[in-house]
Write a structure and sequence with these properties.
Helix content is about 45%, strand content about 15%. It is an alpha/beta fold. A hairpin with a 4-residue loop joins β10 and β11. It binds NADP nicotinamide-adenine-dinucleotide phosphate.
C-alpha cells in the first residue's frame, strides 16, 4: 500500500538523508509534503525532484521568493510557522517525519499526534519539553511514535527481545564528542570550529554543538524517559567513541541486547518508515573485522555538567525540562554567532535553571511562556555583561 510522507525540515541533515532513503525505497513511498525554514534554493530543487503536493516555508521573509521559484498550479505553498501544522493535519499524510531543529517543531507534532498519524521523530527537543503531552495525545488518537534518533531506534529494536517489565536497564551510548578527553581546564579554550568537528557523525550545527557539550546525551536521556516510559534510575550512559553500538538494553537475566551499524542516520530513518518490515536500503553494511576494537568508558560528569544536569532534569520533569532546552537553544545560537565561549553554554543553562521554579502538569500555553522566558533570560544575562561571558 502506498505510504505518503511529509518531511518537516527537509532541507536539513536528517531531511536530506530522508529524501535519499525514500527515493531508494521505491514506488511504495511518496513524498507528499516538505517544509523548510530559509533554504529556499534547496527546497526548490527538492520540489523539482520529488514533486510534493504541498510545501511550507516557515520563515515568512522567504514567502515571496519561494512563490517566484516554484509557484505553479500543481503545488500548494504554505507560509509562516503554522505551515508545518497545516501539513501535519493533512488527511493524506500517513507518516510525518519530524526533522526540524529545536522546539519550533512542537505544535506540528502535537497536531499530527492528535490526528493519529505515525510520527517518525528525529526532532528530539519537542520530546524533551513536552514528551508526556505528546505521548498522551498519541495514545488517545491511536497514533504511533517511531524513534529516529539512532540511540532510541536501537533501544526500540533491542526492546523487542523481551518484555518491558523484564528490562533491567537501558544503556545509551555516546561518542563523547570531540572533547571527550579534555579536562575542565582544557575545555575552557575550545573554539567554535573545534566544536563543529564531530569525530563520527555528520549532523546539523546545533546538534553537533550539543554533542560537544554532551547536552545532546542529556536530551536523549529525557527523550528515552518519555518514549519508553522508563524511570530515570533505569537509564544509563556509556561513552563509546566508535559509534558502532547505537545503544543497548539489559534484561533482568543479565542478557544485554544491542543494535549495531555504521554511524549513518539513513538506517534509523528507514526503519521508522518501513517498521515493522525490514528492507534493503542504501546503508553500507558493517564489517566487524574492519572495525577491530570497540571501547567503552564512563562519562566524566565533572567536565560535562550538562549531562549530569540532564539526569536531574529528567527526574524533575515539568517546566524545568522546558527551561533546560530553551536556555540551551538560545545559548547555542549565541555560541554559533561567536558571542559567547563554549563553556558559557552550560553556565547560561545553570543560571536559568537556578532562577526557575518548577511547575508540573502545565498547559501548552504555560509551556511556551516558560520557553520564551528562558530565551529572554539568556539575553538579559548576556546584556548584563556578566564577567565570565567573554
Ligand atoms: N543530524 C543528525 O544526524 C541527527 C541525529 C539524531 C537526531 N537529530 C535531531 O534531528 C533534528 C534535526 O537535526 P539536523 O541535524 O537535521 O538539523 P539541521 O541540519 O540544522 O536542519 C534543521 C532543519 O530545520 C529547519 N528549521 C530551522 N529552524 C527552523 C524553524 N524555526 N522553524 C521551522 N524549521 C526550521 C531547517 O530549515 P532551513 O535549512 O531551510 O533553514 C532545516 O530543514 C534535531 O532535533 C536533531 O537533534 C539529528
Amino acid at each position: 500500500m502506498l505510504k505518503k510522507i511529509a518531511i518537516l525540515g527537509s532541507t536539513g541533515s536528517i531531511g536530506t538523508n530522508a529524501l535519499r532513503v525514500i527515493e531508494a525505497l521505491g514506488d511504495e513511498y511518496q513524498v507528499l509534503a516538505l517544509s523548510a525554514h530559509s533554504n529556499i534554493e534547496l527546497l526548490a530543487q527538492q520540489v523539482k525532484k520529488y514533486k510534493p503536493e504541498f510545501i511550507a516555508i516557515t520563515n515568512p521573509d522567504y514567502a515571496k521568493e519561494i512563490h517566484e521559484l516554484v509557484g505553479n498550479n500543481d503545488i500548494e505553498i504554505l507560509t509562516g510557522p503554522n505551515g508545518m501544522v497545516e501539513i501535519a493535519q493533512l488527511d493524506e499524510v500517513d507518516i510525518l517525519l519530524a526533522a526540524v531543529v529545536g522546539s519550533a517543531g512542537l505544535p506540528a507534532l502535537l497536531a499530527a499526534a492528535e490526528k493519529g498519524k505515525r510520527l517518525a521523530i528525529a526532532n528530539k527537543e519537542p520530546l524533551v519539553i513536552a514528551g508526556q503531552m505528546l505521548l498522551e495525545k498519541t495514545k488517545e488518537s491511536g497514533g504511533s511514535i517511531l524513534p529516529v534518533d539512532s540511540e532510541h531506534s536501537a533501544i526500540f529494536q533491542s526492546m523487542q527481545s523481551g518484555k518491558r517489565e523484564e528490562i533491567y536497564k537501558i544503556i545509551l551510548t555516546a561518542s563523547g564528542g570531540p572533547f571527550r578527553k579534555l579536562s575542565s581546564k582544557e575545555i575552557e579554550n575550545v573554539t567554535r570550529e573545534q566544536a563543529l568537528e564531530h569525530p563520527t557523525w555528520d549532523m546539523g550545527p546545533k546538534i553537533t554543538v550539543d554533542s560537544a557539550t554532551m547536552m545532546n546525551k542529556a536530551f536523549e536521556v529525557i527523550e528515552a524517559r518519555w518514549l519508553f516510559d522508563m524511570p530515570v534510575d533505569k537509564l544509563d550512559v556509556v561513552i563509546h567513541p566508535e559509534s558502532i553500538i547505537h545503544s543497548l538494553v539489559e534484561f533482568v537475566d543479565g542478557s544485554i541486547i544491542a543494535q549495531l551499524g555504521k554511524p549513518d542516520m539513513c538506517l534509523p530513518i528507514q526503519y521508522a518508515l518501513t517498521y515493522p518490515e525490514r528492507v534493503e536500503g542504501i546503508v553500507n553494511r558493517l564489517r566487524l573485522e574492519e572495525i577491530g576494537n570497540l571501547t567503552f568508558f564512563e562519562p566524566n560528569l565533572e567536565v560535562f555538567r550538562g549531562l549530569k544536569l540532564g539526569f536531574e532534569v529528567a527526574r524533575t520533569g515539568g517546566t524545568t525540562a522546558v527551561v533546560f532546552n530553551a536556555a540551551n537553544e538560545a545559548a547555542v545560537e549565541e555560541f554559533l554567532a561567536g558571542r559567547i565561549r563554549f563553556v558559557n553554554i552550560v553556565e547560561l543553562i545553570e543560571h536559568c535553571l537556578n532562577k526557575h521554579s518548577n511547575k508540573n502538569d502545565v498547559s501548552l500555553e504555560e509551556l511556551l511562556e516558560t520557553d520564551s522566558w528562558a530565551r529572554k533570560e539568556v539575553k538579559n544575562y548576556l546584556q548584563s555583561g556578566h564577567k565570565s561571558l567573554i
